[in-house]
Every structure is written in C-alpha cells, then in structure tokens.
Amino acid sequence: MGDIGVPATIKAFEERLLEVSESLPKRLRQCADYVAANKDRIAVSTVAEMAEGAGVQPSAFMRFCQILGFSGFSEMQRLFRDSYVGGWPDYSTRLDHLREKAEGSPSALLAEFVEAGRTSLENLLKTIEPHTLEQAVKILAKAQMIHIIGMRRSFPVASYMAYAFEKMNVPAMLHSAVGRLENRNAVRDGDALLAITFSPYTADTIDMVEAVSAHGLQVVAITDTIVSPLRKFPATILSVSEVDFGAFRSLSATLCLAITLAVAVGTERPEK
C-alpha cells in the first residue's frame, strides 16, 4: 500500500479505518469490525487481548495495524492513550490564558464554573452504571473497615468521605501520608479500600491499590479516563469526568458521587 502516513488524531484514525475496511480480507475485516465497535479498549488492552476479541491471531492483528499506517499495535495504542491523557499546563500558564481572554472577572468565573459543574453533573449520570454503583456500595457496606486514600486534587474528596463515614458511625480510616507516615499495616482481612485518583495519577494511591489487591482485599476506585492505571487492578471502577474551564477542573461531580456513596453505605450497613 506504500507509505500512507500514521494517523495523527482519532478522527484521522476513524477516516483511515473507514477507507480500508471494505477492501480487507476476512480476518483483517474481523479486526476492523472489532476495533470499530471497541475503540475504548485499545488504550488499555494488549495486542493478544484485542486479537482474541476479534477472533484472529495476534500476527493478523499486527498486520491490521500496519495496514492502517502504524508500525505496530504499540504505536496505534499510543495514539489513543495520548488522546485520553493530555498534559495539563501549570497553574501560571492557566492563569495567563484566562488573562489573555479577559475572562477573569469574578462574576464571569462564577458563571463559567457553574456551567462546567452543571455539565459535569449531567455527565455523571451517563458515566456511572447503576449496577456498578450498587456493587461498590455493597463492598463498602460489608467491610469491617473502609480505608480511604486520595492525594493532591483528590484529597478533599477523600477527607470528606472520611468525615461523612465518621458522622454515620461507619468505621473508616483516611490514609493521607502526612509526614510520610504510612498506615498500610492497619489493613486487615475483611477491610476494603476506597481509592480516588485522577490524571495526572498519584503514585502513592496506585501503590496502595496494588498492595491491597495483592492481598485479595476488595477495592472501589473513583477515577477518570479509560487509561487510568487503576483499571489494571481487579477493582470496582466508578468513572467521573469533570468538565474544565480554562484548564481548571472542579470537583462538582466527584463530590456528588462521594456524598451518594457515603449516604448509600451508611444506609446499607446494619444498625448496631
């Protein structure tokens, strides 16, 4: 087919897929059909998993990637990972952008963040699957102790959850790493972990999820994109997508989910 160039965007990828799919032989057409229906799996799957889903050998799937213009599956996967996890500018850059657009008056900021919050709350109903939410509540309600971890931007959510559970007499422990003190030895059989992290993901949170999962304890995770590293663990995932304004992200939807979880768990637990 010659050098057709590497698709640089998801849109270009979709156009290339549409362009070549009709002329593909049966096995490669299976790859095209599977990818078209499961683009959300590309960023988090191995080539073997994608090939199995398409019902072909990994070598056939690699050939399919090359026909689309990629050197192999890794390059195609990188396109999807980069599209979901973009870099966030530092705070000085974000403020400069707002100043350049003359959008920094208090009233204007309030209106914009209210709109971003409203949209985030509406999206929450689309990203949270009812049965997954129910499963998360059951896991936390049955736990002897709920361990909570969330750093940086996630810390307000984690600390609120600890506060809410305390008020409802639900045994909970906040892992904050204050003073670099770790409390992982406090985790016991029958406990559960509630982990909260968003891009850019916090290593301490991921490490604790890995450690707890290795011991067979159940994990409930609140996170964002499909390439969140928490998705590689056997956790019950609750997805939240916060709409940003000027590259500033609020916690409107996340805190709404947090209070929902807290009240649902408090209601589910038997009275003592």
Automatic annotation (TrEMBL):
What Gene3D superfamilies does UniProt report for this protein, alphabetically? Glucose-6-phosphate isomerase like protein, domain 1, Winged helix-like DNA-binding domain superfamily/Winged helix DNA-binding domain
Annotated HTH rpiR-type domain ranges read 11-87
Keyword Transcription regulation among UniProt keywords: yes
In this record, what's one Pfam family? HTH_6
Q: What is this protein called?
A: MurR/RpiR family transcriptional regulator
**Alphabetical UniProt keywords:** DNA-binding, Transcription, Transcription regulation
Protein species of origin = Neorhizobium petrolearium
Q: Which InterPro entries match?
A: Homeodomain-like_sf, HTH_RpiR, RpiR-like, RpiR-like_SIS, SIS_dom, SIS_dom_sf, WH-like_DNA-bd_sf
